[in-house]
Amino acid sequence: MSPFIHSNFAAQLGLPLQYESVLAPLDGFAQTVAALQAAGVKGANVTVPFKLDAFALASASPNSLTPAAEFAQAANTLKFNANGTVLADNTDGGGLCRDLNRQLNTLGLHLEQCQVLMIGAGGAASGCVAAFQQAGVQHLTVLNRTVDKARQLAQRAEAIDLPAAGGGLDTPPSHFDLPGTPVVIVNASSSSLKGDVPALHPDWYERAVLVYDMMYAAEPTAFIRSLSKLDLPCSDGLGMLVFQAQLAFEVWTGQSPNALETLTKVRQALLAKAKQQ
């Protein structure tokens, strides 16, 4: 989807753009980046399994990291500066927050007025914490099958001044000292990739105003389908994909395309592709 998204962004703004996939050897990430810089490439997106390599590359002086990449200890966006240095960013969390605010605005809300319950404590979850703090989220609760991982991520969140707590998936909200603000539930686990549904305590849904699954597909994810009988706004993560790409595009060009226009086209393309299969 990324070439489609960025080509659409460039077309909106009338910018010449060449965006294509480059396959790097597992043991040759740094060499691949050096070759791209030598060829005059302005930047790159980085995907699994190289996000940690991108972080390591930009951690070395004179390269640099944004606060989001530094907290996540992973990067998905590289900017190649004219002086030969590399800036690494992690736009996943920022993209998620932009999409959450887009949907909360339809409810008359903003992330600053809400707390977040995040399911999962892995790389996808870690990539969003700094963005939650920057967005003014009032409290973060991390629930995970492995309780220690949830608590460790919550402790890291508190270290950057984001009030947080961690626990097991079945922990009810009454277990925590939470603010009375609306709850946004974000599934950052890999459950939807497997068709599984997180065994979340049902009391969380009574406090929720929005449920968001980072995964996306032409059809609703298993998690979203499981909530069909509840009167709750639900969303998949396609908007996050487009908004994190918008942030990367801004890093490279200094210009901001219309992400909503592109999101509509991406959704249409996703549905059309599913019909052909």
Instruction: Classify the secondary structure makeup into a structural class.
Output: alpha/beta
What general form does the structure show?
Answer: globular
Helix coverage percent? 40-55%
Low-confidence runs of at least 5 consecutive residues: none
- Along the chain, the helix and strand elements come as HHEHEHEEHEHEHEEHEHEHH
Radius of gyration: 19 Å
What is the CATH-assigned architecture of the largest domain?
Answer: 3-Layer(aba) Sandwich
* Count of separate structural domains: 2
Major β-sheet annotation: 6 strands, parallel
What's the N-to-C terminus distance? 17 Å
CATH class of the largest domain: Alpha Beta
Which fold does the CATH topology of the largest domain refer to? Answer: Rossmann fold
- What percentage of amino acids are in beta strands? 5-15%
The total strand number stands at: 10
What count of helical segments does DSSP give? 11
Side by side, the strands of the main sheet go 7-6-5-8-9-10
Can you put this structure into words, describing what you see?
This protein has about 280 residues and is α/β, with parallel strands linked by helices. The protein folds into two domains: about 1-90 and about 240-275, 3-Layer(aba) Sandwich (Rossmann fold), CATH 3.40.50; about 95-235, Rossmann fold, CATH 3.40.50.720. The chain is about 45% helix and about 15% strand. It contains eleven helices and ten strands. The chain has helices spanning about 1-15, 30-40, 50-60, 65-70, 90-105, 125-135, 145-160, 205, 220-225, 240-255, 260-275; strands spanning about 45, 65, 75-80, 85-90, 115-120, 140-145, 165-170, 185, 210-215, 235. The strands form two sheets. It has a six-stranded parallel sheet with strand order 7-6-5-8-9-10. It has a four-stranded mixed sheet with strand order 1-3-4-2, sandwiched between helices.
